[in-house]
Amino acid sequence: MEFTSKIKDIGRTLQGNLTITLESHEISPKKAAELAELGDLMVTIEKRKKKRSLDANAYYWLLVGKIGKHTGASKNHIHNMMLDRYGELDQMPDGSLIPFCIRDDIDYLEFPYPHLKPTQKTLSKGDKLYRWYFQIKGSSEYDTAEMSQLIEGVVSECKEMGIETLPPEELERMLAAYGTKRNR
């Protein structure tokens, strides 16, 4: 079960065990009682990140499609180019980047996944040349700030190509609406 909450209180029992009291409006008393009856639980607590708006996602893909029609490139190609220019590199839990090595003659921009950022580092094996890449985080994993950066980049590319976009105030409203929705 997953829900958002805040730590309301931290204390110790007479036996010295730590107690943590959570406060949430997302879980019913009945569900909390069911959890209490389960006995030992595995608990993971992490900082909540605002997720991106589905409206923002739909708008992003609309613009990717418009750029594709304008340039004749596929949606995968445009999506991967935009992630390369305005996206975030993916990381392992320890913070290290995720490397890939593929043949240099393969068009990585057509991949639906993984999304890759090329490096200058290459490797020769026989008559084949391989290139090292780092994995880019997929936009479905972006929080509001990351998605805003991606959309702003795509909007700027559209404007350079003469492709119609939302007025700035409408774009701002759309992105703000999602932040409000997530904070309820």
Describe the structure.
With 184 residues, the protein is α+β, with helices and mostly antiparallel strands. The chain has two domains: 48 residues, no CATH class; 129 residues, no CATH class. Helices cover 39% and strands 21% of the residues. The protein has five helices and five strands, in the order E-E-H-H-H-E-E-E-H-H. The strands form two sheets. It has a three-stranded antiparallel sheet. The protein has a two-stranded antiparallel sheet with strand order 1-2. Strand 4 and strand 5 form a beta hairpin. The radius of gyration is 22 Å and the shape is flat. The mean pLDDT is 88.
Topology:
Blueprint: E1 6-12, E2 18-23, H1 29-36, H2 54-71, H3 75-86, E3 99-103, E4 115-125, E5 128-136, H4 144-161, H5 168-182
Shape: flat
- Poorly predicted runs are none
Major pleated sheet: 3 strands, antiparallel
Compute the number of strand runs. 5
Q: Strand sequence of the main sheet, in spatial order?
A: 3-5-4
H/E element order: EEHHHEEEHH
Task: Provide the β-strand percentage band.
Answer: 15-25%
Look at the structure and give the mean pLDDT.
Answer: 88
Cα-based radius of gyration, to the nearest Å? 22 Å
User: How many domains is the backbone divided into?
Assistant: 2
Distance between the termini: 19 Å
Summarize the structure.
By secondary structure, the chain is of the alpha+beta class. It is 39% helix and 21% strand.
Throw out a few tags for this protein.
alpha+beta; 2 domains; 184 residues; 3-stranded antiparallel sheet; two-stranded antiparallel sheet
